[in-house]
Please model this.
Amino acid sequence: MGSEEPAKIEGTDLGAEPEADADAGEVPPYAEYHGVPEGEYEDFQLPDGAVADEALAAEFRPFAKELGLSQKGAQRLVDFKAKLDQRQLEVWHDHLQNLRGQAQAHPEIGGGKYNEAVGLGRQVIAKFGTPGLRKMMNDYGVGAHPEMIAFMARIGRTVGETPALGNGDSAGAGQKPLHEILYKDS
Model:
């Protein structure tokens, strides 16, 4: 027991003067973001062109109060969320551009064959799809994917080569071409 050293205590000795706090009296830089307003929050400023989701805004106000945010602090969160949303849109746009670039370089549908392939795919969707299918393809970027374009183009070529079934007529004799039916105004 006698060989143990006393525990070392961090800090100054009792007799030493404490170091002066360099930040004493200064307001912390984040203080302006705290302090819940007495009434309701004022309307938050949104970037040009942005529209507030009223249900989300109504949910955000009590959340901001729970966090103890001032008007400025809550606005800072709104601004940051708008920035995140803008970045997400940029990433999505870049993803779609990347898919289109892959489609343009695709050995089956790329280069000079691209417009034909897209046209065939659109004809297949117009003939066999629904507005919901078109919406899904746009919403999820499926319509820009090179494999989907190639798939739809193959279907379009196959359907175009298939003779009409029914009364024994050859390949739709007497029928208008599909593009004239689909695009009546052209």
Summary: Residues 106-163 form one domain. The longest helix spans residues 71-105.
